[in-house]
Design a protein that fits this description.
Elements lengths: L8 E5 L4 H12 L3 E6 L2 H13 L3 E6 L5 H15 L4 E4 L5 E2 L7 H29 L2 E6 L12 H23 L4 E8 L1 E2 L3 H4 L1 E2 L3 E3 L5 E2 L1 H13 L4 E4 L1 H12 L1 H9 L3 H4 L2 E5 L24 E2 L3 H7 L2 H23 L1
Parallel strand pairs: 1-2, 1-4, 2-3, 4-6, 5-9, 6-7, 7-12, 8-11, 11-14
Antiparallel strand pairs: 10-13
């Protein structure tokens, strides 16, 4: 049983912007002591002040999650400050829009290092403290693109597929050890964060999130929920779940859908020329932000996630009802 949020110590990587920033604020509002980690110390300081102004506790620790020594130090300093780690959220990530041919070996290495190894390092750093305490929650933020890949984001998709595989192995090992440490995978659909402004682009224009797009608050709600309620996987946005189901059923059909009218390419391009700025190797925005530039058509929340994916029993009940309905329909047609 997880501690109530107001009594938790939570470490969040990638907390300077986007999903991580919104999640940190929500944890702070719920009374958790929040350890904020990212490369951008100025942006982290702003988040910490917001939490503290609301009466919460926050500590800023600069860290590049692609560097093991820095992640190891992050965990040690969090425990030195607050005595323990109850929830660790592996959220930091970077991306690039380019063909495989146009993506350099150095760029591939950097994206894998941050997105995949960064989460592995986070788990390795947090696990000894959680095992010592006998409990804890590890939340790995993957992506709907960790279930089904798209072109122009090969490194990102590879890293998110890797997170899914790594998390499954970890979960089985802990279950075999009869550990009370909970491991959750969060799989967001496209989210309106600064990720797309921060992305390195070699497609000639600024990238566009693959629709439909959701607000970062939808993911933050799922993350905060998972810290208190053990779950295996949580899809944020029905679109990601539908895509995963289609991929499992008929991946060739998904290929055909994506390539019809070159839609998978057109839906990832804005009409604005790329400005050549990105945060792949260095932080970009001094101030940091939660949302990106697509708020006009971003859905404020995901009703699917809020009312179904957070509650597996409801999903099973709905599936049973649908199955019974289909059986009844088939019988009626047979008469």
């Amino acid at each position: 049983m997880a501690r109530p949020l107001h009594d938790q110590v939570v470490v969040i990587t990638g907390a300077s912007s986007g999903i991580g920033r919104e999640t940190a604020l929500q944890f702070g509002q719920r009374g958790a002591a929040v350890v904020l980690a990212a490369r951008n110390l100025l942006a982290l300081g702003e988040v910490a002040r917001q939490i503290q102004d609301g009466g919460g506790q926050a500590q800023v620790l600069g860290a590049d999650v692609g560097e093991w020594e820095q992640v190891h130090r992050l965990a040690a300093e969090a425990v030195a400050r607050f005595g323990r780690i109850d929830t660790w959220v592996n959220n930091a990530g970077v991306t690039e829009y380019a063909t495989v041919e146009d993506t350099t070996a150095e760029e591939f290495a950097r994206i894998i290092q941050v997105n995949l190894l960064g989460q592995i390092y986070g788990v390795k750093a947090a696990l000894p403290y959680m095992k010592r305490a006998g409990a804890g929650t590890i939340i790995n933020v993957a992506s709907g693109l960790g279930m089904r890949a798209v072109p122009w984001q090969s490194a990102y998709c590879a890293s998110k597929h890797g997170i899914k595989g790594f998390t499954e192995s970890l979960r089985l090992e802990l279950a075999h050890q009869k550990s009370d440490i909970v491991v959750t995978t969060i799989l967001p659909s496209s989210i309106n964060t600064p990720l797309f402004r921060h992305a390195r682009s070699k497609i000639g224009v600024k990238p566009l999130p693959f629709p439909p797009v959701y607000d970062p608050r939808a993911v933050a709600e799922a993350l905060v929920f998972a810290a208190e309620h053990p779950r295996r996987d949580i899809y944020v946005g029905a679109a990601g779940k539908v895509l995963a189901v289609l991929e499992g059923w008929n991946p060739g059909l998904v290929d055909h859908m994506f390539l019809a009218g070159n839609s998978v390419f057109k839906l990832q391009q804005t009409s604005e020329p790329d400005d050549g700025q990105d945060n792949l190797f260095m932080p970009m925005d001094a101030q940091g932000a939660i949302r990106g530039e697509f708020g006009d058509w971003a859905q404020p929340t995901s009703l699917y996630t809020r009312f179904l994916d957070l509650y597996p029993s409801r999903k099973r009940l709905l599936l049973s009802a649908c199955t019974l309905g289909v059986v009844a329909l088939i019988r009626r047609m047979g008469r």
